[in-house]
Amino acid sequence: EPTNHLDAESVAWLERYLAEFPGTVVAVTHDRYFLDNVAGWILELDRGAGIPYEGNYSAWLDQKRTRLATEEKQASARQRSLERELEWVRMSPRARQTKSKARIQKYEELATAAEGEKVMQNEIVIPPPARLGNDVVIAKSLKKAYGEKVLFDDLSFSLPRGGIVGIIGPNGAGKTTLFRMIAEKEKADGGSLTIGDTVQLAYLDQTREFNDANTVYKEVSEGNDVIMVGKREMQARAYLAQFNFKGPDQQKKVKDLSGGERNRLHLAKLLKSGGNLLLLDEPTNDLDVDTLRALEEALIGFPGCAVVISHDRWFLDRIATHILAFEGNSETVWFEGSYRDYAEDFKRRKGADADRPHRIAYRKLVHK
Fold first, then answer.
1. Lower CB density within 10 Å: C or N end of the chain?
2. All residues at 6 or more sequence positions from 361 whose CB lies less than 8 Å from its CB, including other chains
């Protein structure tokens, strides 16, 4: 897991370093952008077997889909999810941009369809929330500083009600502080921040607080066999299964969970509330690829607004309709488009300076 908790600038440096490395590299990672850029082979561990694939992550997707098709006579939810991700990989940049804009324009259709949708098994399902009005969150000339450190001094944006906004930038730039301001846990030093009257907030922060003595089942169900998921009743065990807690895993003590399992449990607790504005702070940390893909599918189908802080570039490229970038030196950029579109725009604006690390001067490593 070499990329865990690294910001995009650090990961980009690591990718360049590995490209020039003369030896062999074996990496355990769930970072699909990283895999796509550096891997020549992928070894998948699946149901007790090690299956080698030649190529990067995009090539693995294609080969994996073919293998699943021969194993399963009927298209499973997992296979359909792979198909959709592969379809996205093959889209032209223009087609991806068109799809993102269509999500914003068709908010009403998405909201209506979600109200009649049945909860599917073995997939993360975000319950249909109350409808949003036109005003979600509007920031005008926001300012925030801690002592001499200025995080941002002229931050303006308006969240679209059907949008999925990816927030990127180096650690310590003010991304989590902005979330805390939207959640009314911090105050701005200047400017205005308006929350729409119809907003029902669901905030996944990084604290991940649990009762470690509880089982997974009790932590989510509070001892009830049937729970409310948004406005619907649902069997607690079926709901947990959607987050890949199945059978005996539901009886695990919270204190014994891995980092990825704790993150999945936190998602399960948050998403049952039915908020129509989701603030997700690093939701992908420690998640396996199948759960990442399921979360992507859930967010793409979510009939509300989501704002996501993440260093996972593949995740953001799949889901984001807009990017809010903290570019350093208190500068912020609001960009309509995917992460890949933003990265290309950044290179156009910065030129040769775009690929140069700004916070750290890396010295070239010498191999002996």
1. C
2. none
The answer to whether 218 and 192 are in contact (CB under 8 A) is no
DSSP 8-state assignment for residue 148: T
Residue pair 170/189 in contact (Cβ under 8 Å)? The answer is no
- Domains of the chain as residue ranges with CATH: 8-93 (3.40.50.300), 96-212+254-355 (3.40.50.300)
Query: 227, 220, 239, 242: which is closest to 295 by C-alpha?
Result: 242
Q: Enter the pTM of the model.
A: 0.76
* CB of 56 closer than 8 Å to CB of 43: no
Q: Where are the beta strands (DSSP E) in the chain?
A: 41-46, 49-54, 137-146, 149-158, 164-168, 190-195, 201-204, 226-229, 232-235, 277-281, 305-309, 322-328, 331-336
Mean pLDDT of 243-261: 90
Residue 222 CB partners (closer than 8 Å, separation 6+): none
> Which residues lie below 8 Å from residue 70, measured CB to CB, with a gap of 6+?
none
Q: Are strands 149-158 and 201-204 parallel, antiparallel or unpaired?
A: unpaired
Distance between CA atoms of 225 and 222, rounded to whole angstroms? 9
Report the Cα–Cα distance between both ends of the chain, in Å, rounded. 25
Residue carrying structure tokens 């049937």: 226
Question: pLDDT tens digits for 174-214?
Answer: 999 999 999 999 999 999 999 999 999 999 888 778 999 99
- pLDDT tens track for 214-228: 999 999 999 999 999
pLDDT at residue number 154: 92
